[in-house]
Write a structure and sequence with these properties.
This protein is mostly helical and 191 residues long. It is 85% helix and 2% strand. A two-stranded antiparallel ribbon has the order 1-2. The longest helix is centred in the last third of the chain and has 42 residues. The radius of gyration is 24 Å and the shape is elongated. 26% of the residues are buried.
Length: 191
């Protein structure tokens, strides 16, 4: 009997020491998802820099050269934003409350959905530049290339921002449930 009690006591101490609160799990899931989103954005950015550089070096067509040049610029910006996002998601956030996590998650959701609106503006600007390329007196090819790039980049970002905004808005629900139950200090075990 004594051996069973010691085993149970040891097991309880082990679980207590290595268990995570529900809040800690939600925080980690949120940070992991932010890192994943930034890795997708960074991969897109790096892909644009690489493909754009190859495209600039391998074509003499002014429209496509402009297209690739603009993609390189977008790639650099997106890669920098992604690197910053991965860095931020890797920062320790000790002591954050469920209310603060919800506030931060909703802020991120709103930023992503606002960006989705900007993405529509990028696409519309791309179509405008393509049309301008048809009637411009100077730099017709450049306008067309820049327009095509804006349409491509805007379309990708619209899909990315819309999906990420939807995803992070759904992530708010478990946080709201945690707050409503007051169970932010409960333990969850992984075996």
């Amino acid at each position: 009997m004594r051996q069973h009690l010691l085993t149970l006591a040891f097991l309880f101490c082990f679980i207590w020491a290595f268990g995570q609160t529900d809040l800690e799990i939600l925080i980690q899931n949120n940070l992991d998802d932010q890192k994943t989103a930034m890795m997708v954005l960074g991969s897109w950015g790096i892909g644009n820099v690489v493909a754009g550089s190859i495209g600039v070096l391998s074509t003499d067509d002014k429209t496509w050269k402009s297209f690739h040049q603009m993609n390189i610029g977008w790639g650099v910006v997106n890669t920098a934003l992604a690197a910053f996002g991965v860095h931020q998601a890797g920062m320790p956030i000790d002591g954050i409350s469920a209310n603060e996590l919800l506030r931060d998650n909703m802020k991120l959701t709103n930023i992503l959905l606002f960006n989705a609106g900007l993405d529509v503006a990028y696409i519309a600007s791309g179509f405008y530049l393509k049309e301008k390329g048809k009637t411009a007196i100077k730099n017709k090819e450049k306008w067309k290339g820049y327009g095509k790039s804006l349409i491509l980049q805007g379309a990708f970002l619209l899909i990315f921002d819309s999906y990420a905004g939807y995803h992070f808005s759904k992530q708010s629900q478990p946080i709201i449930e945690l707050i409503s139950t007051g169970n932010s200090i409960g333990l969850s075990y992984k075996f």
